[in-house]
Amino acid sequence: MSSQGKWIEVAVRIGGGIVAAVLAFHLGFVQKPAYDFPDRESLMEREEDPDARANYDWLRLHDPATGVIPPNIRQDELAFAAKLPRREQLSGLAKSSGIAALTWTKRGPQNVGGRTRALAMDVTNPNILLAGGVSGGMWRTTNRGGTWTKTTTPGQLHSVTCIVQDTRAGKTNTWYYGTGEYLGNSARGGGTS
Questions:
Q1: Residue 18 in 3-state DSSP?
Q2: Closest Cα partner for 137 from 166, 117, 122?
Q3: Which of 24, 25, 78, 121 is 20 to 30 Å apart from 71, CA to CA?
Q4: Measuring CA to CA, how many Å separate 123 from each of 6, 117, 166, 167, 180?
Q5: SS3 for 189?
Q6: Residue 160 burial (CB < 10 Å; 0-12/13-18/19+)?
Q7: Are residues 134 and 117 in contact, defined by beta-carbon separation less than 8 angstroms?
Q8: What is the pLDDT along the chain (193 residues), one digit of tens a residue?
Q9: Cβ neighbours of residue 127 under 8 Å, at least 6 residues apart?
Q10: Is it true that the peptide bond before 71 is cis, omega within 30 degrees of 0?
Q11: Cβ contacts of residue 144 below 8 Å, gap of 6+?
């Protein structure tokens, strides 16, 4: 067999192998990817929920007892905001009364790194505060911030971003905290997850 004949035979075998592989893939003999990514056109044609914004507002604003958003809630909000003192008024009040306006006192916890992202006051006792940091865990004080005790154990997630107390009668000793910033919080650096 000539060298040209050998090259033709090799080309036929390679071409036949490619055809066999394509057929095997399309006939299901080869594992297909678990997820077929949609093309751009099908994404653009996807129908959106026109009620999404109304549902979101209802979830944020409705009264859980009645399931209804209170009437005139926006007007009530604006009326309340109009009654809040302005910075100039607070400064004038401080000068006339002899007290320092907007003076902050550090209350801790001061022996842990990270930003405090969650702060709550117990509805049954204003001396009890809870504070949670993105890398420091959950802390509790019973003397308005004079001393703090860590409530999260070493085995628990210390990335606290929000906190809420169950305010139902008989349930006020139940607290919930939400987590976040598992990666990239102030103690670790990098981007948040």
A1: helix
A2: 117
A3: 121
A4: 89, 19, 9, 7, 25
A5: coil
A6: buried
A7: yes
A8: 666 666 677 666 776 667 666 666 555 554 555 545 455 455 455 567 888 888 888 888 888 899 888 889 889 989 999 998 877 776 665 555 555 556 667 776 666 656 788 999 999 999 999 999 888 889 999 998 888 899 999 888 888 889 999 999 999 999 999 887 655 555 555 554 4
A9: 141, 142, 143, 144
A10: no
A11: 107, 126, 127, 129
Give residue 181's identity as a one-letter amino acid code.
E
C-alpha dihedral over 10, 12, 18, 21, to 10 degrees? -100
List phi, psi (to 5°) of 22: -65, -45
* The pair of three-digit structure tokens given for residue 180, joined into one six-digit string: 């976040």
d(CA 16, CA 23): 10
pTM of the model: 0.45
